[in-house]
Amino acid sequence: MLISAEQEALILGVFEAYVTEHHHGDLLQIAADTHEDAHHSVVVNAMTLFEDNMEVGDYFNAYPSEVLAIFDKALHRVAMELSHVSSKENGDQITKAERMKCTLHTRITGLPVCPELTRDTIPRSRDVGHFLSVTGTVIRTSATKVLEHERDYICTKCRHVFTVQAVFDQFYTFVPPTACPNPNGCNSYKFSCLSEGSEPAACRDYQEIKIQEQVQRLSVGSIPRSMVVVLEDDLVDSCKSGDDVTVYGVMSQRWKPFHDSCHCEVELVLKANNVEVNNQQTAAALLMEDIQKEFDDFWDSYRHDPLA
Description:
Layout: H1 5-22, H2 24-32, E1 40-45, H3 46-52, H4 54-62, H5 64-86, H6 92-99, E2 104-109, E3 118-119, E4 131-141, E5 145-155, E6 161-165, E7 191-193, E8 202-212, E9 226-232, E10 244-255, E11 266-277, H7 279-301
Parallel strand pairs: 1-2, 3-4, 9-11
Antiparallel strand pairs: 4-8, 4-10, 5-6, 5-7, 5-8, 8-9, 10-11
């Protein structure tokens, strides 16, 4: 973790205050939803959030993945508080609030329009680790899959049970630790998977799409490039082939697990945090650009002949 405990406390406090002020109604609707296992999103405008506290914006640009996890944690805490306050007559609400921990997601939108954050072209390797907004056209969508993202393991020596998260960088493979993580101390390195041979306990929806640069935004003679985008949870099936989309996410790289006598092939992917379909806006935006260009050209041609 690259963020200290003091910095995490600051981010939690700022985001909890922001969500309580700007998204109180959204969280009340989520708390009232009867579908406990459904995934819910709260769309947060980055410009408004960063105006409240620029320091949080700096942390977000430097450590986007870590800060997004803290945002989700803060969102869950506020949702639990609202759920407890709104209904205390039965214990089901508490159980539901606990289940919200894995089903509440912060979706970022409205990044500042600058070359460092918003792109009309496919990002490159130097952008790995940065949170970006990428505009393109969906040219392929894969079938929706069920992804196991978490497993419980038990140490064969001390019987300590611990959880292992699937590694995104290695196509969601599970890499057990090299030594037992028992806080009391254990030198064993042999573990057994508790869910082996049975139904996976922790799964989520998963889909991959491929987006391509829009030809009208490229210079003459340029060949459009494409990139894979990873969608999870409620983002799955949010767009289809042919849609013009703006994808907000963290630029990442991934590779297959290492094997002897095999080359390591690293590919760039965008792990999506939010997807906006803007088919209706494309024609209007291009029309506005043409009108603006015509206006500028007209006044540029008469710049030496001002109005009397």
